[in-house]
């Protein structure tokens, strides 16, 4: 994934005075602290899902067969960016003054429990989760 999708051009997004200062988290993402709502950014550390719920399109981005009767649920898999890549993104945000972020992975709770090297690093280093959904982090 690091080679296929190597990163974001955060500096090209519109801003007022500092990068990402036009983006705000939901109130509860920032523990109801208005000062922490911006700058704000979101990231995926993985794409896809190992499950195949009939109503869900999440695995369309993993679809490798465009046959008529192949659906999202036929393309169940997860792909990950490396721990090094994710930490580089987090450092970039930190350098930009971003202290509230969202990790938008669809299966982050499962990832923590099982398969994601990045999640294991977060847990082993004692990183703090907010009281929001499990995939919301603050630094
Ligand atoms: S992301 Fe959620 S709804 Fe979609 S296939 Fe996975 S478990 Fe089902």
Structure explained in plain terms:
The structure is a single chain. By secondary structure, the protein is an alpha+beta fold. The chain folds into two domains: 10-45 and 81-138, no CATH class; 49-78, no CATH class. The chain has three helices and five strands. The protein has helices spanning 83-95, 108-113, 117-124; strands at residues 40-43, 46-49, 77-80, 100-103, 136-138. The strands form two sheets. Strands 1-4-5 form a three-stranded mixed beta sheet, with no helix packed on it. Residues 128-139 have low confidence and may be disordered. Bound molecules: iron/sulfur cluster (SF4). The site of iron/sulfur cluster has 7 residues, from loops.
Q: Major sheet: order of its strands?
A: 1-4-5
Overall, the morphology is elongated
Uncertain segments of ≥5 residues (pLDDT<50)? 128-139
Supply the helix-strand structural class. alpha+beta
The ligands found in this model are:
iron/sulfur cluster
Radius of gyration: 16 Å
Major sheet, described briefly? 3 strands, mixed
Oligomeric assembly: single chain
Helix content, binned percent: 10-25%
Calculate the mean pLDDT score and round it: 80
The separation of the N and C termini measures 25 Å
Order of helices and strands: EEEHEHHE
Number of H/I helices: 3
State the total count of DSSP E strands: 5
Strand fraction equals 5-15%
How many domains? The number is: 2
